[in-house]
Amino acid sequence: MGRTDIIKYAVDALQAGEVIAFPTDTVYGLGANAYNDYAIDKIYRIKRRSRDKPLILFIKNKAELPQYVAELTEATLSLVEKYWPGPLTLIFKAKPSTPCQTATHTIGIRIPNHQLVLTLLEQLDFPLATTSANIEGEPPLGEPKQIRSQLGIRVVLGDEKITMGVPSTILDVTTVPPTLLRTGKLKPGILWQNLKHLKICDKLHLLFVCTGNRTRSVIAEWLARTIFPDLVEVRSAGILPGGAPPDPKAVMVMREKGIDISSHRSSPVDVDLLKWADFIFVMEYRHVEFITHLYPDASSYVFYLDTLSKEVGEIPDPIGSPIENYQFVRDIIEMRLIELSRYLLFE
């Protein structure tokens, strides 16, 4: 069956009130006519999902957004222009006529960056009510065969496998500042460049990088543990091989703060660590060069700790200098982390 025939087959199924499955730029999804109550009920039964957990609308293009959304700010439109189609779900205030809205009259909307789904959406005169293809609480299914056998879905578009799929990032733009409800495929650090202030309701990963991971990044890691709440997981690494203890003077100046870093052992930066991070903060320009060479995608969420931005600002390496220089570096890092905590507001 050719692509045109497959799309027509899916359109007919949706118009008849069926639930279909399809690949997206994140995970496999389930979809139904958002205006068909019977089809919506069927999605919830297939998922074994509570009705108080909302579905997300897929729309065909940005021009459709005002049909469903009660309020659009310039800042929100900027996010739409930058990240749609893409792995960002935005939560809006819904118009009274908008389908699938929550009890608080909000609606999540996304345009996925996957040509097959975009082609399907172009053929529909209604939005798709969507959710991931899985039983509630279980990992998303990554193969059409699994979706047919485990969920009983008759119509599955595409034949690709999506292993270890990462869901979309969910950002609530009805609040001021916007609230990060779920960290996903679009890194929060990328969004932060546009928003600067961000409420956080999900686990956040911060990575601090210096040269040897014996002084500056270690100080940053351990200070961050005291400044940020449990929603933040913090690590540090260096661009040199690992295994070394912290600089003795770094241990001394951190003991002045009541923090014992003597058990730390240096770790090297690797690709897995860069993928793990939501924000990467570096001390020098050469750290940026090393990271972006190792994993180019990280360039969009790496920042200078001294400026908390892409603008170059370097925190000097005190190794081999008097103790006063270590204290100076420690205090700069602490000030920057406190400033960062004022930008990232934790619920």
Give a quick rundown of the structure.
By secondary structure, this protein is of the alpha/beta class.
Describe the fold and architecture.
- With 347 residues, this protein is of the alpha/beta class.
- It has 2 domains: 3-186, DHBP synthase (Alpha-Beta Complex); 198-346, Rossmann fold.
- 34% of the residues lie in helices and 18% in strands.
- It has helices spanning 3-15, 37-47, 65-68, 74-83, 115-122, 144-151, 188-195, 216-227, 248-255, 271-276, 285-294, 323-343, and strands spanning 20-22, 29-33, 56-58, 88-93, 106-110, 128-132, 169-172, 179-182, 198-200, 204-210, 232-238, 279-282, 302-304, 344-346.
- It has a 10-stranded mixed β-sheet, sandwiched between helices. Strands 11-10-12-13 form a 4-stranded parallel β-sheet, with helices on both faces.
- α8 (216-227) packs across α12 (323-343).
- The protein is elongated, with a radius of gyration of 23 Å.
- 41% of the residues are buried.
List the helices and strands and how they pair.
Blueprint: H1 3-15, E1 20-22, E2 29-33, H2 37-47, E3 56-58, H3 65-68, H4 74-83, E4 88-93, E5 106-110, H5 115-122, E6 128-132, H6 144-151, E7 169-172, E8 179-182, H7 188-195, E9 198-200, E10 204-210, H8 216-227, E11 232-238, H9 248-255, H10 271-276, E12 279-282, H11 285-294, E13 302-304, H12 323-343, E14 344-346
Parallel strand pairs: 3-5, 4-7, 8-9, 9-14, 10-11, 10-12, 12-13
Antiparallel strand pairs: 1-2, 2-6, 3-6, 4-5, 7-8
Helix pairs in contact: 8-12, 9-12
